[in-house]
Every structure is written in structure tokens, then in C-alpha cells.
Amino acid sequence: MTPPPPEPGPAAWWSRRGALSVRARLTLATTGVVAAALVLGAGLLMLVLHVMLLRQLDDTAREQAREIAALVTSGRTPEPLPSGGTTIAQVVDAQGRVRATSPGGDRLVPLLEAPDVARARDGDAVELSGRRIGIDEPLRVIAVPAGPAADPQTVLVASPVGDLGRGLSVVGRAVAVAVALLVLGAAVLSRWLVGSALRPVEELAQGAAAMRADGAGQGAGRAGRLPVPAADDEVRRLALTLNAMIERIRASSRRQRAFVADAAHELRSPLASIRTAVEVARLHPDEADWAQTADGVLDDVGRMSRLVDDLLLLARLDEGRRPAGPASASASASADASADAADDVADAADAAAVADEVVDRVGRQLADGVRPVRVGAATAPVRVPADALDRVVVNLVENAVRYARARVEIDVHRDGGDVVLTITDDGPGVAAGDRERVFERFTRLDDARSRSAGGTGLGLAIVRELVHSCGGTVRLEDAGPGLRAVVTLPSAARDPN
Questions:
Q1: Residue 418, beta-bridge partner list
Q2: Which of 255, 374, 420, 495 could bond 410 through an S-S bridge, CB–CB 3.0 to 4.6 Å?
Q3: What CA–CA distance (Å, rounded) separates 412 from 352?
């Protein structure tokens, strides 16, 4: 038999109160705490008041008993005994006989029996029912020794406690009314304070609900921003953080839309070229050179493949994943299959060795023109995956070779805890105002717009994403003449902490 599920605890019960708003829950919690504190305080107040009144009653009765005891000890016992208003006094001897009494007292029956007298003489107050002496309310009796040693006597003073109880009852009702009013006031004040504190949050929620995907909307404030409270508190910091997040999301959305539009535009060009070539050859089959048409189609397919591979690589980098695929400017179509194998590659590579290998590979691919030359350190280990470093060097070298006039120089050297890789060409260079813009995706300057050059406008964007993902920096400098790309990477010898 399956045992019944355990009863949920208070925390679980409270967390499931979905029907209650935050304002209601905070108001209930605050009011409950205030009510518990007030009830506890009222109880302690009544207890302390009761103890103090009893002590005052006992002190008054004991003082009266001492005065009578002094008269008894001096042999001047008055008859009747002086009374303090509602108190009853008796003088009893060792045999329990009543020697004297105050007006209204019983001359035959002592207030206390022998055991209680002994306890009262030790300083304790003895409570008894008033019916013993014909009184309807309870009594509290104090005893004080009196008389000479040869004839020991005891002075008993009984004080009725009915008035004390009635007084405490009146005070208790007044305290209960005060507690109820204070709890009600605390609930109203708490609800108002919580409402005031949550009002900016509600405004933020309304602004967010009114905001459209493009950031506009009447409830979103100026320029599609959430309202920021004037008070410098947690809600203001939350609003500022949300606005900053919205700006980042909006900027990312703009970049993504521009990226998709540019990618679609770049893919349409080779597709249009392929379609045109095939349609012309199909309309004029006798005049068409099918081998030349096939070569042109293959060239356009190659451009599309390189573009798709670059887009896949950038998508992986945007997700924070390690780049995959062979270390070349144009990755093969098996990039996804190579991604898992790339995870087994060590996160350290020799920048000098990678530069030498890239120089040799690019030099073999060039039939004529400028050939890159490598200078600098013999070894320069960096804390960068070899495939990522190879892609960075390849993109920068091919870009330099594409625009160089006569010289491309690759230098690798150490600089403190970093390794600096520079690729310098003597080409037309890049204006200072464009050196940051060329790292944006699909950016081509006027001199680089020719599709025959083979660039997709993603090479430098890939370089920056790869370098940043490895903890390095990249920038462009004037080489006078020409352009110098400077890549700074963390050395493998440097402490990562």
C-alpha cells in the first residue's frame, strides 16, 4: 500500500498561494508579524502588571501587619485591631486561637490553619477562598510574627483580590481593543507602503507589456525605454538594468536583422550568376561552352560554400562554442562533424609554428604575385586552440596578400606575458576612421568591393570573434605605407589567474 504523501510544510504552502498577489502576501506577512508581536507584548504587559499589583498588595498588607505586631509585642493590643479599609486583621496564638480581630473579622475561626500559618510566617503569601470567613471573593493573607517569646503570636492580614482581578480585566479589555486597532492600522499602513513600493514595479510591467518587439509603444516611455523611478533604490537599479538589457537585445536584434539581410544579399549574387549561366546555356545549347559554364558554376558554388562556412563559424562563435573544421580560410562542408573532434585538441599552440605553416601553405597556393615572409621568434606558445589560431593567421595573411603591392611580412614576438602577432602589407591601407568598421560583418570598403577578389566581407569579423573568444585583442595600424594587423594573445607561460 502506497503511503500517503507527507503534509506540506509552511514554506511549501506559502509558495503555492498563487491566488494571492505580492502586495497581499506582504501585507499578510507584515500584519501577522505585527499582530504576533503586539499580542505577545500585551500578554507580557498583563503578566507584569498582575505581578506588580500583587506585590504592591502584599507590601501594603505586610506593612499593616508589622504595625499591629509592634503593638502586640509591646503589650498594647488594641481591640478591635486597626483595619486598612478592605483588609481583615487577626492575632492568633500558638494554639490557633483568635486573640484579637479587626471589624468584620471572625473571632472564632482563624484565617489560616496551622500549616498555612507556618508557611505564611516564612514570608509566603497564602491565597484562600473568602468563604472560610463568609466573604464571596478570594483573599491573600500575609503573616508577621508578634508577641514575646513566652507567648508567641502571629498577626494575619487578609486582603481581598477581587478588585485587583476586576481592575486587570478592565485593563485587559482596553489592551485588547488597543491591539486590535494597532493591528488594523498596521495592516492599512503596510498595504499602503507595499503598494507604494510596488507601484514602480507595476509601471515597469505595464511599460514592458506595452513595448513592441521594435522597442516602441506608448507604455514604454521615450525611445522605447522602461520608466525609471526617481528614488535611488533597488527598483531604480532594476529599471536601469532592464533598460540596459533592452538596449543590448535591441542592438543584437538590429545586428541579426542586418546580418540576415546581408547574408541573403550575398547568397543571391552567386545564385543569380549560376541561374543566368545555366539559362543562357540552355537557351543556346549549340553555342554554349558547357565546360566553361560548369567552371563558372563551380566558382560560384565555391563562393557560396565559403560564405556558408563563414556564417556557420560566426554562429558558433556567437553561441560561445569553439570553432570547428580544418584550419583554412575556406572550411569544408563537414564543419559540424569536425566540431566534436576539435574539443580534443589542446588549448595551447605555438604561434610561430602556426605562422610558418600558414606562410608555406599560402605560398604554395599562389601561382604568382606577393608571397608572405615570416620573421620573429622561433617559438611562441599561446593559450589558444591551434585551429582557431590557424584560422586567424590564414584570414589575416590572405587579406594582406590580396591588397599588398610587393611585400607581406608576418612577425611573431613575445611582449611580457603576451605573444604579439603582426601581419604587415604595403598595400593601400585603410583610413583611420574605417579601421574599426572593417571588423563588422559584410563590410567592404570602396577599394574592396570587387567580387573577383574573392572576399565575403566576413574574414576580419571572424578574426575579431576568434581572438576575443581566446582572451586576446586585435587592431589595425598604419604601416606607412600599407596596413599592419596587430594580434595580442595570452602566452601559455603566463599564469591564467
A1: 415, 490
A2: 374
A3: 6
Render 159-206 in DSSP notation, one character per residue: EE-HHHHHHHHHHHHHHHHHHHHHHHHHHHHHHHHHHHHHHHHHHHHH
Q: Which helix (H) or strand (E) holds 390?
A: helix 386-403
8 Å CB contact between 117 and 143: yes
In one-letter notation, the amino acid at residue 494 is R
Would you give the distance in Å from CA 342 to the centre of its chain?
36
Closest CA to 438 of 412, 491, 400: 400
**HSE-up (13 A, CA, CB side) for residue 468:** 12
Burial of 60 (0-12, 13-18, 19+ CB in 10 A): middle
Round to whole Å and give the CA distance between 23 and 27. 6
Q: In this structure, how many other beta carbons lie within 10 angstroms of the beta carbon of residue 24?
A: 13
- Asked whether the beta carbons of 179 and 42 are under 8 A apart, the reply is yes
Q: Which residues pair with 424 in a beta bridge?
A: 409, 484
Once rounded to an integer, what is the mean pLDDT over residues 107-128?
A: 83
Identify the pLDDT of residue 48. Answer: 93
User: Worst-scoring range by mean pLDDT, 241-250, 259-268, 356-365, 424-433?
Assistant: 259-268
Q: Which residues pair with 419 in a beta bridge?
A: 414, 489
* Site of grid cell 472560610: 132
Residues in contact with 92: Cβ distance below 8 Å, sequence separation at least 6, in sequence order: 98, 99, 110, 111, 117, 153, 154, 156
Using alpha carbons, select from 100, 104, 73 the residue that is nearest to residue 87: 104
- Residue 475 main-chain phi, psi, to 5 deg: -150, 165
3-state secondary structure of 226: coil
Nearest by Cα to 377 from 355, 397, 408? 355
Taking the C-alpha atoms of residue 34 and residue 41, their distance in angstroms, rounded to an integer, is 10
Least confident of 29-33, 244-248, 310-314, 427-431: 310-314
Q: Would you state the pLDDT for residue 446?
A: 52
Q: With beta carbons less than 8 A apart as the criterion, state whether 156 and 120 touch.
A: yes
- Other CB atoms within 10 Å distance of the CB of residue 18: 6
Least confident of 24-33, 117-126, 318-327: 318-327
Q: What is the mean pLDDT of the chain?
A: 79
Burial class (CB in 10 A: 0-12, 13-18, 19+), 305: middle
Neighbour-count burial for 318-348, b at 16+ CB within 10 Å, e otherwise: eeeebbbbbbbbbbeeebeeebeebeeeeee
